[in-house]
Every structure is written in C-alpha cells, then in structure tokens.
Amino acid sequence: VTFTATVSSNNGVPGNGAVISFRDNGIEVGTGTLTSGVASVTTSGLTLGTHPMTAVYGGYAAYRAATSNVVAQGINQNSTTTVLGSTPSPSFVGQPVTLTAAVTPSGAGTPTGTVSFKLGNTVLGTGTLSGGVASLVTRFSSAANRLVQAAYSGDAGNTGSTGKTLTYFPSALL
Fold first, then answer.
1. How many helices (DSSP H) and strands (DSSP E) are in the chain?
2. Burial class of residue 10 (count of CB atoms within 10 Å of its CB; 0-12, 13-18, 19+)
3. I need a labelling partner for 87 at 20 to 30 A (CA). Which of 34, 69, 134, 159 fits?
4. Are 57 and 20 a contacting pair, CB within 8 Å?
5. Could you report the per-residue pLDDT of 102-147, keeping only the tens digit for each?
C-alpha cells in the first residue's frame, strides 16, 4: 500500500528534505522525504483489517508540526481461483492418477494451506500447497464417470475457493 501526504501552510510549502512519518494507530510504519510539498511511503507490513493511518510532520522554522486527519485503510484477503487438472488423461481402471490443484491469488503473495480433493461429497484426500500447487495420487476402481473437485480452504491472506468440476472417466483395460 502506498500512502502520500501533501504538506502546505499559509507560509507556503516547507522546503525539500523534511521527513514525514506515516503511522498506523500512532506506530510508525515508514517515512517519506518531502519534495515540493509531497512525501510518500510504500509498505507491505499491514495486517488484515482496518488501520487508522496518519501522516505526521515534525515542523521546522516558520512551519509548525502537524498531524493529518485519520484515514481508515482497509486490508482485505485476496480472492483466489482454483484450477484442477489430472494426469494421465485418459487413464485406465486401477492406474495411479495424479490430481493437481493450482491456486492463484488476486493479489500479491503465494497461498498456503490445504486443498481437499473430492469425489462428489466424499473427500478422496488432501494435499498441502507448495508454491500454490497441491497434488493427490489416487486410483479409480471401475470404469465410470467421476465428478472430481478441488476445494482450497484459504489462509490468513487468501479466501478459499473451489475449482470447476472435472469429469474423469477411467477406461477399462482391454
């Protein structure tokens, strides 16, 4: 998140080089150097929730110290998209099949946690995400359509999501 403060007074704009402190509920999260009356800071350290942010100018010579109005900055979870795939495809009855779910966030970061692989309402097993990908190896015991889904449970920075249903049909051996 980037915060920007503009400093001015009846005496004009303070000189370049003054330091502006950007604060979350009074605790400094970063500083910016004033250039032509404007200072900015970028931070990735804010947790989920609403943060009461202020910009504080310490004052100098003809310019009194000042604190901005509070700005409520909300930090939300990323939405995610889960995509399910399988290999080999097609496969045969009894052959190992690797189900793979890739979870992509709408914003920065890599999702963590688990993905449940489901056959209808029955959980076939779970896989732990590594680099946004989880896998499960399973076998199907008969030649029949299978409706398989992958459901990501979410984590502190990412919402859960369920991928589109994959229809899987293992062939009988000839």
1. 0, 15
2. exposed
3. 159
4. yes
5. 999 998 889 999 999 999 889 999 999 999 999 999 998 888 888 9
Neighbours of 81 (CB within 10 A): 14
User: In which band, very low, low, confident or very high, does the pLDDT at 173 lie, cut at 50, 70 and 90?
Assistant: low
Question: Helix (H, G, I), strand (E, B), or coil: what is residue 69?
Answer: coil
Q: C-alpha 102: how far from its chain's center?
A: 14
Q: What is the dihedral of CA 39, 42, 48, 49, to 10 degrees?
A: 10
Give the Cα separation of 100 and 85 in Å (integer). 5
Please answer whether residues 163 and 149 qualify as being in contact, where contact means their C-beta atoms are separated by less than 8 angstroms: yes
6's tokens: 């503009």
Structure tokens at 129: 């995400």
- Residue 16: phi and psi, rounded to 5, are -65, 150
Give the SS3 label for residue 33: strand
Give the separation between CA 91 and CA 96, rounded to whole angstroms.
8
Chain segment 17-63, per-residue pLDDT in tens: 999 999 999 999 999 999 999 999 999 888 889 999 999 999 887 88
